[in-house]
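Recall the central idea of this unit: under ordinary conditions, the amino acid sequence of a chain determines the structure it adopts. In this exercise we apply that idea directly, starting from the sequence alone.
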Amino acid sequence: MDSPPNRSSQRANNQSLFRMQGLFCKIPTVFDRPYVQKINTINMETLKNKVAVVFAASGEIAGAVARSFAKHGAKVYVTGRNGTAVKALANEIKADGGQAEAGKVDALNETEIETYVQKVVADNGKLDIVFNGIGSYYRDAGSGTPSTTVTFEQFLHPLQRICGSQFLTSRVAAKHMIQSGSEGTILLFNASMSRTKTPNMAGFGSACAAIEGLTRIMAAEFGKHGIKVTCICSGAIYESHKISEMINDFSQQVGISIEAMTSQYKRFDLLQSGLTLKNVAETAAFLASENGVVFNSHIVDVDCGKLNVI
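Accordingly, the structure predicted from this sequence is:
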């Protein structure tokens, strides 16, 4: 039987190797427990010196993303139609030690988008990140209404509003990224309805699928300029007001309790924890960072795992 290792001699051998190379230093080994320290792998400034524009930032999701960008070091321009709301968000970010400016911009008005992005690039010389969190009120989109009875206007509404806005903000951002030589990241956003077999969601589901197609096309177009285009595909965020309101309305329509309706939504969840606004926001910050460079043209599912998403 071999004799047990001599710990002192092993440490001396390790140090000798570095001494011979002119690199003498105290190297911790498995035998040097007091010297072993936990390594912090989280860099809280992964977006340091980055310039980001967040559209529809008065909404819960885009607001959370803006906070995350700022927390990770980016200078964030928060925009929305509700000037008071985005100004309050910018003040909140600054009070928390971040950098933020607010602007009143309609994410469906290309002239306003163009003017604002042009200003951001003029002020900073570049544009690194764009995120658009625009959504749609489910009733306007005809969600919950059978395809045989939903109006054509309701069907087109999410296509024009959600997909249309993503198209406008992405192409304006890309144009200025190309002109300024900014090898930036464009993050689109949609819901997992594009890949679920859910009835009575013709307009909304079609809009989500269209955004995924748009992501791939733009990534193919803009990649030669060093620009990444990625889509975050989110599951239901139960803590958000929109999902809570929709569950409440649907429960009344079918005559069951809110708890029972919520359980219907959660029955496909692989994890009991559920998706949060912070989960989505931190994923966006990761994708916009150097660490997320491998994601381009991808549709990134952010839902903690679902049985019914293909």
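Residues 152-180 form the longest helix (29 residues).
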